[in-house]
Amino acid sequence: WVVLAFIPLAFTFVCPTEIIAYSEAAKKFAEKGAQILFASTDSEYSLLAWTNVARKDGGLGPVDIPLVADTNHSLSKDYGVLIEEAGVALRGIFIIDPKGNVRQSTINDLPVGRNVEETYRLLEAFQWTEENGEVLPCNWTPGQLTIKPEVEASKQYFEEANK
Predict the structure, then answer these.
(1) Are the CB atoms for 7 and 91 separated by under 8 Å?
(2) Which of 78, 92, 99, 146 could make a disulfide contact with 134, Cβ separation 3.0–4.6 Å?
(3) β pairing state of 35-40 and 67-69
(4) What is the CATH code for 2-114?
């Protein structure tokens, strides 16, 4: 599994909060068999320089996730997050399964960051459905009721959920 996230630019304001938060959660994602990658239209040199700036100064410091330099913008274009006239990516995040299928995509406009816990919940949910063949209701978290995707069998969920 891969969690591929895009950021607009290095040395900006929301981006370090996201990269640091996802980096701090990288081990938790790895335990679920998922690798987190962050891509930017910046050069590898700019991204490297950003990791050499202290967090208290708006830098990243050391991070536990790869930063991908998408200098030719092909990755950003392929995932539909590139703002062509600005040459930067929107805040897209994609959960990709081992077969290369995009299982989840969210694209935020520039001013709003993403939620690590929601990304993790979605990863768990897609992995659960892959392993169990059932579907998951709104706001599902591990341990909650699931739905068998058949008309008669699904009634068990609806009866239990609507007591």
Answers:
(1) yes
(2) 146
(3) parallel
(4) 3.40.30.10
Q: Tell me the catalytic residues.
A: 15
- pTM score of the predicted model: 0.94
| pLDDT, tens digit, 9 for 90 and up, residues 7-54 | 999 999 999 999 999 999 999 999 999 999 999 999 999 999 999 999
Asked if residues 4 and 94 have their Cβ atoms less than 8 Å apart, the reply is yes
Residues 6+ away with beta carbon under 8 Å from 81: 6, 89, 90, 91, 92, 107
Model confidence pLDDT, tens digit, residues 110-155? 999 999 999 999 999 999 999 999 999 999 999 999 999 999 999 9
**Where do the DSSP E strands lie in 17-162?**
35-40, 67-69, 82-83, 88-89, 91-96, 102-108
83-119 as b/e: b if 16+ CB within 10 A: eeeeebbbbbbbbbbeeeeebeeeebebeebbebeeb
Tokens read off for 76: 């950003």
Tell me the two tokens of residue 33. 């068999």
Q: Are strands 91-96 and 2-7 parallel, antiparallel or unpaired?
A: antiparallel
**Can you tell me which residue has the tokens 């994609």?**
94
State the Cα–Cα distance between residues 106 and 150, nearest whole angstrom.
28
